[in-house]
Amino acid sequence: MGERSLQRRLRCSLLLVLLGALLLPPAAGAVDYLSFATEDEANSTEIFSRASPSVVYVTNTALRRVPFTLNVQEIPRGAGSGFIWDDSGLVVTNYHVIAGADRLIVTLADRSDHDAQVIGVAPEKDLAVLKLQDPPEDLQRLPLGDSSELSVGRKVLAIGNPFGLDTTLTTGVVSALGREIRAPGGRTIRGVIQTDAAINPGNSGGPLLNSLGQLVGVNTAIYSPSGASAGIGFAIPVNTVQDVVPQLIAYGKVLHPIIGVELASDNWIKRNRIDGVPIVHVYPGLPAANAGMQGARQVSARKIELGDVITHVAGERVHDSDDYYSALEQFNPGDTVTIKTLRGDEEISFKVRLVESQ
User: Which of 175, 204, 229, 321 is an active site residue?
Assistant: First the structure.
């Protein structure tokens, strides 16, 4: 009897110890993993619930004639994601999602389909703006964040339609900032966000969100030997998007600062092993001509004499046209920049006032 009483006392003591451990507050520095996971899950769920109605599915179709007949049929050319820009029915997506389309269909979160037309494109930034035909009245736009406030390790969420699976959420962190990727036209997009949030074919054009549910980027590319997510995805920063999209809406393209020259192609530059950007032609009445720059001239059927070869823009070394355009994009029309050229063996410096492209 005494042994049973002792066992009961030991069991009661053990229960009291366990109960006390559950009721006591965690020690300083201790991590409540269950609470942390629950808060993070609640954050992801809330963001998805608020943001997913703004995400759309973009289908790109092309018209093709059936062989040996006169029939024309629509053939799916590609698909991707996008998001509502404003309640008038404007949609932002990647340029490569809609390139070459004969017809664009945008599927909203309520699964309704709407024809869309292209309002403006910026292949050099891989961005495009579409306009829905007969848009509904209850469209929801995403709140805009500030990509300059991002830091490595910050949580991000991607919503899109990978492999046609609509409204899919993936989460991750900002893996790196200031990356460079190639746009469809061959230009370099600088300042790109790298993330490990899973991005697969079909995610292109969809939003990258921060933990406040704000748009911080547009998912645009992945780095993967297999073509599927390998944990390295890229997004165009929202600050770039906010600069480009209003121009696409107003003008249908991005207005670049120019000096008024025609440049040699990069293939020709590489083939002739020239370190710099040769000017082929200087347009009369524009800043380069007014500053005294000279283009190339043909002295015989097989010989071209170079004029000015641009080597520096505002102190930045340029090796090809991509370097040149990227250097100019740091300025606005009306700014005056110093451009250095090589004319034969002579180095010349020009002060040139930039004008707006038309």
Answer: 204
Q: Give the model confidence (pLDDT) of 90-138 as tens digits.
A: 999 999 999 888 889 999 988 899 999 999 999 999 999 999 998 998 8
Does the active-site annotation cover 114? no
- What CATH number does the domain located at 52-132 have? 2.40.10.10
Candidates 81, 96, 323, 326; catalytic one: 96
Which regions of the chain are under pLDDT 50? 33-34, 63, 71-75
First to last CA, the chain: 101
Q: What gap in Å lies between CA 201 and CA 220, rounded to an integer?
A: 10
169 in Cβ contact with 159 (< 8 Å): yes
Hey, which CATH number is domain 257-356, 3.30.70.100, 2.60.200.30, 3.40.50.880, 2.30.42.10? 2.30.42.10
Of the candidates 263, 105, 123, 98, the residue with the CA atom closest to the CA atom of residue 186? 123
Identify whether 204 is a catalytic site residue.
yes
Q: CA–CA separation, 58 vs 164, rounded Å?
A: 10
Q: How much is the pLDDT for 3?
A: 59
Return the CATH number of the domain spanning residue range 147-251. 2.40.10.10
Question: Taking the CB of residue 185, how many other CB atoms lie within 10 A of it?
Answer: 14
Catalytic site includes residue 115: no
Residue pair 339/354 in contact by the 8 Å Cβ criterion: no
* Total-model pTM: 0.76
Phi and psi angles of residue 295, each rounded to the nearest 5 degrees, phi first: -90, 180
Q: How buried is residue 287: exposed, middle or buried, by Cβ count under 10 Å (0-12/13-18/19+)?
A: buried
What are 232's two structure tokens?
A: 């390295």
Structure tokens at 342: 């090589």
The alpha carbon dihedral of 183, 188, 190, 195 has a sign of positive
Q: Which of 54, 81, 114, 126 is catalytic?
A: 126
Determine contact, residues 296/309, Cβ cutoff 8 Å: no
One-letter amino acid of 253: K
The pair of structure tokens assigned to 262 is: 């025609």
Structure tokens at 341: 């050229």
